[in-house]
Specification:
By secondary structure, this protein is of the alpha/beta class. The protein is 46% helix and 14% strand. The protein contains eleven helices and eight strands. The protein has an eight-stranded mixed β-sheet with strand order 3-2-1-4-5-6-7-8. Helix 1 (13-24) links the parallel strand 1 (5-9) and strand 2 (28-32).
Length: 282
């Protein structure tokens, strides 16, 4: 199946990043958010980000104009009716995701592929809100989507080969490197990465080292480009907590219990870069 028109659900950092990748590769992209204020904010941020790239000679004016011309904006789910693919990049809340796709199931054409950018929830669970679980996949982009090459293409329990291959091939077409992942909490990367971040928080909580030294240790001792606590701040501590809670709930394994310090940080509103303070100040 050829994928030409795509709706992105959510005009936040991740949604806009995905939109930029797809529109830059010549795809028609519709960005949908809840109200006009959010949509105008998303449009302004995308145009501003593109203008900065042109000013830094990282993109030509013609490339910027072509990319922006491929993006339209809406607050209406009904505009997904003629899309070949819908990618959800909304808040990390299972019930919200299920509600959105339940509505879309009655709007989109039968061959439309549904995809979630979820970083932790079961693709099979989200797909259960629709009557097209065989055409439901995970497309897990990494932040920032415009820079990170990897995309996990995730099979749900009922995902058929044809929609999976169509989405996998699309990722290669737009310049990403896809890997196949099966049904399981956290898929591949986050299943390994976020528990490591959580363990770094335990090390800080126990007073074994400072936040600075923990990060330096992993950077210079393990060759990581970024330490686990800076990474937690980048991901968002609330997101890290939600992922660990999902792992724990799904597996019942105590090795996935969230660090108490992580819970305290989230309760205090120290969520990382997006709040201006996490384990470090920004």
């Amino acid at each position: 199946m050829q994928i030409n028109k795509i709706m992105i659900l959510g005009g936040g950092i991740m949604g806009l990043g995905i939109a930029q990748v797809l529109a830059g590769a010549g795809k028609a992209v519709v960005v949908r958010d809840l109200n006009d204020e959010l949509i105008q904010g998303a449009k302004g941020r995308l145009e501003s980000n593109q203008a900065k790239l042109v000013a830094k000679n990282k993109k030509t004016q013609a490339e910027m104009d072509a990319m922006l011309a491929n993006v339209t904006y809406t607050t209406t789910l009904a505009d997904a009716a003629d899309c070949d693919l819908v990618i959800e990049a909304a808040v990390e809340n299972l019930e919200i995701k299920k509600k959105i796709f339940g509505e879309l199931d009655g709007i989109c054409k039968p061959e439309t592929i549904f995809a979630s950018n979820t970083s932790s929830y079961s693709i099979t669970a989200i797909a259960s809100s629709t009557k097209r679980s065989e055409r439901f996949i995970g497309l897990h982009f990494f932040n920032p989507a415009t820079v990170m090459k990897l995309v996990e293409v995730v099979r749900g329990l009922n995902t058929a080969d044809e929609p999976f291959k169509s989405a996998y091939d699309l990722m290669k077409e737009v310049g990403k490197t896809p890997i196949e992942a099966g049904e399981g909490p956290g898929f591949v990367v986050n299943r390994i990465l976020v528990p490591m971040v959580n363990e770094g928080i335990f090390v800080l909580q126990e007073g074994l080292a400072s936040a600075e030294d923990i990060d330096i240790g992993l950077q210079l001792g393990a060759g990581h480009p970024m330490g686990p606590l800076h990474l937690a701040d980048l991901i968002g501590l609330d997101t890290c907590l939600a992922i660990m809670e999902t792992f724990y709930a799904e597996t019942g394994d105590t090795k996935y219990r969230p660090a108490p310090l992580l819970r305290k940080m989230v309760r205090s509103g120290k969520l990382g870069q997006k709040s201006g303070e996490g384990f470090f100040k920004y």
